[in-house]
Amino acid sequence: MIDVSMFTVGMVQENCFLVRAEGSDRAVIVDPGEEAPRLLQAIEDAGVTLDAILLTHTHFDHVGAVAPLARATGAPVYCPVIEVPVLQDVMAYVPWPGFGPYESWDPEHTVAGGETLELAGLTLDVVFTPGHSPGHMSLHIRSDGEEGLLTGDVAHHPIQMAHLEWSSTADFDPVQSAVARRELFARFADTPTLVIGGHFGAGQLKRDGGAFRLVV
Ligand SMILES: [Zn+2]
């Protein structure tokens, strides 16, 4: 079984995930965007050692707490290779005033998509889903026959499953973003995989005409 705890953090209300195989004393954290003290407390409360800090992409609302978590836990950071310069200079890429300051970080590992990572007793397939950001990754998590998919910001809202062409104003490449949605959702639709977004909760993807919907 996969045990996922979700923490909605920061003013942008981004979802950070603490993921482990059920009962394990090791875990990974995905997209620690803000509120490092709260996340560190959650790690301590769960009684787990962090094996990795994984990033779907490097928008500030997903990486704001990377540096304090990496320093406090010693866990290595896995960053999309194309977006390493952003993680190394986070504040230079914050588009609005009033956020931060966030500390930059040199990631210990990079991913380009196509990797299979074995971390904390979980198998994590890294799926390249560019569009929202140039190097965006989704994470397909497997453990004991159970599967989950963290989609990051491939979609900001489940309505983009029905309207694949509705891209977010935050998308770097709106056309490619729509392609990424169609490909990713087609792969996981009508499977038992639990799908969880960077800004919405969990459900299962169903085909619906030429598009998809999230059944919660
Ligand atoms: Zn984003």
Describe the structure.
The chain is α/β, with parallel strands linked by helices. The protein has six helices and 13 strands. Strand 12 (204-208) and strand 13 form a beta hairpin. The two termini are 19 Å apart. Bound molecules: zinc ion (ZN).
Distinct bound molecules: zinc ion
The share of residues in extended strands comes to: 25-35%
The radius of gyration is 16 Å
- Whole-number average pLDDT? 96
Oligomeric nature of the chains: single chain
How many extended strands? 13
Strand order of the largest sheet: 1-2-3-4-5-6
Through-space gap between termini:
19 Å
Number of helices: 6
The CATH homologous superfamily name equals Ribonuclease Z/Hydroxyacylglutathione hydrolase-like
Characterize the overall form.
Answer: globular
Q: Examine the secondary-structure arrangement and name the CATH architecture.
A: 4-Layer Sandwich
Q: How is the main sheet built?
A: 6 strands, mixed
Based on secondary structure, the structural category is: alpha/beta
Number of domains: 1
Level of helix content?
A: 10-25%
